[in-house]
Amino acid sequence: MQFAEFAARATEIEAEPADLETVALVADLFADAGDDLPVLARFVQGRVFPAYSERKLDVGPRLCREAVARAAGPNVDADDVEDRLAETGDIGGVAASYDVGGQRGLGAFTDGDDDALSVREVYDELAGLAAAAGSGSEDEKVATLFGLLTRCETDAEARYLARLVLGEMRIGVGEGAVRDAVAEAFDVPIEAVARALQVSNDYGLVAATARERGVDGLADIHLEIGRPVKAMLAQAGSVADALDSWRAAAVEVKFDGARVQLHHDPAGETRVFSRNMEDVTAALPEVVEFADAHLDTAAILDGEVVAVDEAGAPLPFQEVLRRFRRKHDVERMREEVRVELRAFDCLHAAGDDLLDDPLLARHETLADLLDDTDAVSELIVSDDPEEIEAFEARALAAGHEGVMLKDPESAYTPGKRGKQWLKRKPDVETLDLVVTGAEWGEGRRAETLGTFLLSARTGDGYATIGKVATGLDDEELADLDDRLAPHVRDEDGQTVDIEPAVVLEVGYEEIQRSPTYSSGYALRFPRFLAVRDDKDPADADTLARVERLAEKQS
Ligand code: ATP
């Protein structure tokens, strides 16, 4: 398919307000996609590669602006692009606003159909771009984008190319719409598509399989060692909630660590993935060594990596973060912070997917695989609130965060935040908020950012809720400075505008109504607790949760 055709369809989809019609248009696109189906199943969501893929474009707004400015002709500079962007906030709209296909603007180098961009070419070029690394790679990336943009013949091509590169198509097509469209286009049940997506996370594979092999083919898609799936998540809940819903509760320690999914291939390697499906194997050599020593069959385990002291007692979450995702000095840090695996679930063992097995059976398999070592979560099944409370008191006394309550019969549902797993945290709830701005420090700290503007997620953006300046030492300030620097959008005197990228966990004494911030709320005495390295802005807390917490406290 020509990229211009895809862009024209995307324009139509973007203009369609009704969900059902949107799904129908996406289904038409898939039905007409030919060989490009796998790529288009991702492009409509603003993705170039499958979510689990290690390949990333790593193109930020700055590089994209540079490429648009260059492609827009000799009279346009990055400032001009930035000015237009400031008005609309949409890089696609800005790219499309430059005389596309004209004599001097974007598309000036096209000369008819022979040179027209195809979907395949866009994908291949972007795949090449993702492979660029090392010094000079930024220039290479800008050059590739420039090359693609100059070949756009329509403003729609420029619009969706620029948006695709930044990972946001803004055409109202999310994972659910793609799932439904695959079902509609190839006449297979939505449930079959949903299950295949849960175990593969690969929209391209699922769409192509639905088309070529129908429902039987979808049923043949299984978990694969080395291909992570989304983690099952928990809701907040009480012992009463659990015992009202189930005949008894499976009660486990709630570890204060970082979520991991461990994939072990007895003939190959062990790989460890974060909750965002990022490969963090290199940062956690002792977890890999442990798995290699204890597992002698193919397995996918779900659990947490925790930091422990010499006696094996848990250390606070902040300590794990010093190890998690670390790319340099791993061996040196290994001396300073000891980490261990605490596994609580088993998704696959010895060639069998266990997702549909009851939780207790999966936990038994887990204990067998890991020889009942300390790495297996302790689990009791109880319908007695007193027994559960005693278990919780022991967990807290041992330094854990609290307990998890789980339905003993429940299946493992990747990516779902259902009622089968309840988290019971006795502490005051903290908030995970996105940094959207900052202010320079004062006095001794004038060289670093010192105050951070925090925002909660809303339906389509972020709403500010407070500023945090306490709880950070010099090292943490310097670290935050480094993390935020690449995301600075604009600076005006003391204040700095920052694009959403970094999530902070903050404590506070109270949530108040307040006209000061756009959310309508303010935090009293906010204090910094940790950088939530393991969360993207999309995982940050929502304004709806802030509202619920505010209500609960009054
Ligand atoms: P989220 O609910 O989005 O995961 P969060 O990261 O702040 O939010 P919590 O709300 O504290 O996490 O609780 C859920 C998390 O607890 C799980 O994602 C998992 O990482 C962790 N966890 C610790 N121990 C267990 C356990 N035994 N079973 C399941 N999850 C556990």
Automatic annotation (TrEMBL):
GO annotation, biological process: cell division; DNA biosynthetic process; DNA recombination; DNA repair; lagging strand elongation
Alphabetized Gene3D superfamilies for the sequence: DNA ligase, ATP-dependent, N-terminal domain (1.10.3260.10), DNA ligase/mRNA capping enzyme (3.30.470.30), Nucleic acid-binding proteins (2.40.50.140)
EC number: 6.5.1.1
Binding site for ATP: E252, R259, R275, E304, F344, R417, K423
GO function terms (MF aspect): ATP binding; DNA binding; DNA ligase (ATP) activity; metal ion binding
Active site per database record: K254 (n6-amp-lysine intermediate)
Spans traversing the lipid bilayer: none
Family note: Belongs to the ATP-dependent DNA ligase family.
Designated name of the protein: DNA ligase
Source organism per UniProt: Halarchaeum rubridurum
Organism lineage: Archaea, Methanobacteriati, Methanobacteriota, Stenosarchaea group, Halobacteria
